[in-house]
Protein 1
Amino acid sequence: MGLAGNLDLVLDAGITGNFEALKHFREQVVRVWRKWLGRRSQRACMTWDRMRQLLERNPLPRARILRPYSPA
């Protein structure tokens, strides 16, 4: 599944009652992003302090509910 497919899954998850799952997903994205940024250089790893600074300058979108859940 490509990036567009993953974005569709995330957007579909933005319904009422699913905020905690969205929040967890965002936290995992930050962890993976830090992991891969740390692998880019042999001289220094990406510390959590540096990652926080990066996120302050380049914030990820916050988890939010896009539409109310309505069962079919």
Note: The chain is about 55% helix and 0% strand.
Protein 2
Amino acid sequence: IRCGDLRRGVNLATELNNKQLKRECADILESKKQHVEAAILYENSGQYEKAASLYIKLKNWIKVGSLLPNINAPKIHLQYAKAKETEGSYREAVAAYSSAREQDSVVRLLLHNLNAPEEAVAIVRANKSVEGAKMIAKFFQRLNDYESAIQFL
């Protein structure tokens, strides 16, 4: 890999069952801006957060989504949620925002995009979010349901 024969180096690293070697090769590839190959080797070495970060740079949301169950970093879940929201996949965005602990964003999507006020109310009651309560109150005010709106003001 250091000598410039990236394809041969990646193939050798992939064939060998050595996670440390794969991780080191991925580091080298990343420094050479070979993000696709680096992401694959990071994934093969169990470095899921690093792999997901590179897949995010590559905007490969399918691969990011497949790695999410192995990732605890809220930052990655948040980036994935924003991407899914942008493309209109609101249920996936809600799940990712929830994993990122962004409950106000979950409430916003449930109210404005998924028309699921019952779920939003349950989340706000469980988390006692002031901002979420304001969103629910405004939602009910727009429906002229002032009795429900008052509960959240």
Note: The mean pLDDT is 94.
Protein 3
Amino acid sequence: MLLNASLSLNAFPIEDLLEEFQDVFPKDVPHGLPPLRATLPNKAAYRTNPKEAKKIQNQVGKLIEKGWIRESMSP
């Protein structure tokens, strides 16, 4: 999405909003994501008939080609 060049930052009062709601934002922001604390489920995929399995494989293949998903690195 492209923004019109005639729009200026003054049209978006972001600083006013940040000042108004400063109590909502933490003073210190942690660097990075929090550690993963839950265990991942380690179970086989649900069973499907061959026709459904082929449809799923085609959909997954298309998503991988588009770069929207990638293969898992988990064991």
Note: The radius of gyration is 23 Å.
Protein 4
Amino acid sequence: MRYLIILFLMVTFVFAVSLDFPSDNLYYNKSNLVLSCTGLGNISLYVDGILKETKMGSELTNFSINSTDGFHVWNCYSDNETNFASVNKTFVVDTIAPSVEILNHLIGTPLNLTFSIIELNLNKCYYSLNSLNETVNCYENITLNLGEGNYSFEYFVLDKSGNSNSDNISFEIKELTPFVIDKITFKKYMDWTNFTLFLIVDTSSDSICKFSDSSVDFENMNLFDATSSRKHNISFFNDVSLNKEYYVKCKNGDKIVSNSSKIEVNFESFVFEGGLIKSWNEIETARRLVFETSEDLNSLQEVEVSLVHPITNAKVRVEELNETGLENPKNEVFIYFKIDWLNIEKPDYDLALIKFKVGKDWLEENNLSVHDVVLLRYNEGWEEQQTYFKKRYGTDYFFETQVEGFSYFAVSSKIKSFEKTVHKEERQIEVVPETVEEVIEEKNSSFFLVVILLSFLFLLGFGGYIYSHRKDFGK
């Protein structure tokens, strides 16, 4: 009797249900997974308490599932053992990349950097400074001691599923330049225009920076606190003359430590036939120009260019369209828009960004996820642009795309197949299908020609034969 009990326990242990793959509490950045378990008889897979599939058991039974993002619990049930595995296993699916933004980078010694990171499953953070990498604590700000020179800084964030994202800045530190104009933005509202000047300021110096809308003496310029914030915001209403020159000067004691940085702006910004137009004369020191469309447009949020050198008499025009008059993309289109730049070409900038948003209703109506959304640019045919999902706010999803140029654009679902684009130097050969009657007629014509040819050859040979015999007969 003792041996029977031992044998029963051994059989029960050997044939108990086991969860073989994957290991417990793994993270995935994809939704298609394979779960494996071992047991006898029919094996059933349960995920989050819901039966997914039942298969005839063997030494190893694999189940393929398509899972949603989030934390999940799974187990297998064997009808032979009439039991589940003794312990549940878990896994996490996370297909969305972290959100990261460099909030502040005030030039100084030391250089203080702050960040905004949105991610529930943080794994690792590191930065690259002029191509040298350094791992850091994701929850701490960064302080760097830098000398004069040009710097390229990029901050990377990785989650436990392997998704990653980054943000970057480039700047220059000079002894006698306590500030750099990093970015200038223009935003059009219903009845007023906002002009915002972003300064990177050297907080380690004792310099006092001032701002003025005219070239006046330093003492008569308007003082602003450059050491507490890098952002200086000036708003203008439409009834004010906006064609002015703006200046920034900094002073350390009795010494002017920066030349006057002139920003000559012509605010010709107004709504026209559903679109917006913005122009400015000359930007001498700005690194980036940003045109924020605000609530005037439904989808397009922002157009940004990073300048290589100063520009003169530049103008940008943006317009949302219901149609373009061009061939339509193959998939669902949320909206079309057109962006035109005047007096600014690709050599004038090295980076161009377009930011837009898509409503939750449109995604649900077309059964799309944020990873199915793409920006298309028309360049002798619709071309997909590398599109990144940035964040969600309320019922809107926000995206960002880097583009090589400007023309017509379409916010669309990803195109499954493209027809080949025929360029100007190419010729398209049109192939017309033949009908059955045309094939029969062609065959009959060919047969008729063969008969005529054979008849001609026969008559020619027969005539030659008669001619030769007549010649012999004459002899």
Note: The longest helix spans residues 436-474.
